[in-house]
Amino acid sequence: MVGTNVGSGSLYEGPTGFSRARRIGRYIAVAGTAPIAPDGSPAHLGDLYRQTLRCLEIIEKALKDLGAERGNVIRTRVYLTDAAQWREAARAHGEYFRKIRPACTFIVVKGLLEPEWLVEVEADAVLED
């Protein structure tokens, strides 16, 4: 199946063989997106709210690179390492998507690839006809 891939420059994309996002037709899937700063380091250490915003910024850029925007997002998945802090991630997600209100699932996990990451976010989007 022919599609279009975009990367975000993450050091993990090449060695693991994944793209930040892939578009086939009107559908776009954005991979689990960690709070990585432009220099490749973990962003906003210890701050779940700001880490979540960073994930969403990276996702939005990938969507734009594939001809979509925030309003095309139909579903998100938020992976958290600390259930007690879920409100901080929810606050960031709510600010970002308040007018769109995509389907969303919050999932608590034991850990993420890097211990400094408190959150990862995935998104699915569909372009209009």
UniProtKB/TrEMBL annotation:
Gene3D superfamilies: RutC-like. This is Enamine deaminase RidA.
